[in-house]
Design a protein that fits this description.
The chain is mainly alpha-helical and about 230 residues long. Helices cover about 70% and strands about 0% of the residues. Helix 5 runs antiparallel to helix 6 and helix 10 packs antiparallel against helix 11. The longest helix has 18 residues. It is globular, with a radius of gyration of 18 Å. The termini are far apart.
Length: about 230
């Protein structure tokens, strides 16, 4: 019933990935799961803990591609949210790039690593390559909500906000109880679609969840709505 409600249809690549063991080392896998849980918080301490646990996981199994992809994702967030007390921005960005490259070297069909490289390419202004990498991530894992969010972000800044909104809507369908940062990306995508009321709702939801980041986006939305007084208290 859950699969039917989410309208999920597994691709051959996804079926293969689900059938195989990501690592034969149970300690490495346990550390990886703990790292994912810590990173889910999207906080300074959560990011610091996640990166440390991912490193420990890799020490147990240097061929664990998913752990390298985890580092890439966590380091990208450290850079994106200015968690400088964890890693300085340029160092975090380089760590994300190197870890993503290593993940793909170990596992050429790793969707998360492709998504990270797409986001990094977007920031470099190489929109064509960024879209290629982000689309490949979705092709490899069409039921991965995070991959859809990454593609939506790249499309937004590449000048395709309507397509980006479709991807965000798919991400929310695939993740009915999404992590807080999804609302930030949704708000940004809605802003570029000039759907300012909906953008304000999404970004205020993020504030209510006490998630870091996105104050600039909320300020821009309020400006468009001519809400120039004090923001509502949460």
């Amino acid at each position: 019933k859950i699969v039917e409600a989410l309208r999920v249809k597994l691709t051959p690549v996804e079926k293969t990935n689900l059938a195989r063991k990501p690592t034969g080392n149970l300690e490495a896998y346990d550390l990886y799961l703990r790292a994912r849980q810590a990173h889910f918080e999207r906080t300074v301490e959560g990011s610091r803990t996640a990166l440390a646990l991912y490193e420990q996981s890799i020490a147990k199994d240097p061929t664990f591609a998913e752990a390298f992809a985890g580092i890439a994702i966590a380091a990208t967030d450290v850079w994106r949210f200015d968690f400088d007390s964890v890693l300085l921005g340029p160092i975090a960005r380089l760590r994300a790039f190197e870890a993503a490259q290593k993940a793909i070297q170990l596992d050429p069909v790793n969707a998360s690593a492709h998504a990270v490289l797409g986001l990094l390419g977007m920031v470099d202004g190489d929109h064509e390559d960024a879209m290629r990498l982000a689309r490949k991530a979705v092709k490899l894992a069409p039921n991965d909500a995070e991959a859809r969010v990454a593609l939506a972000t790249v499309l937004t800044y590449a000048g395709a906000p309507e397509e980006a909104l479709e991807e965000m809507e798919t991400a929310f369908r695939l993740s009915p109880a999404p992590p807080p940062h999804f609302y930030g990306f949704l708000g940004s995508t809605l802003f570029f679609n000039r759907l300012f009321d909906r953008a304000a709702t999404a970004l205020e939801k993020l504030r209510a969840l006490q998630s870091p980041g996105w104050p600039q986006e909320l300020a821009m939305v309020y400006a468009q709505l001519n809400r120039l007084g004090n923001p509502p208290e949460n």
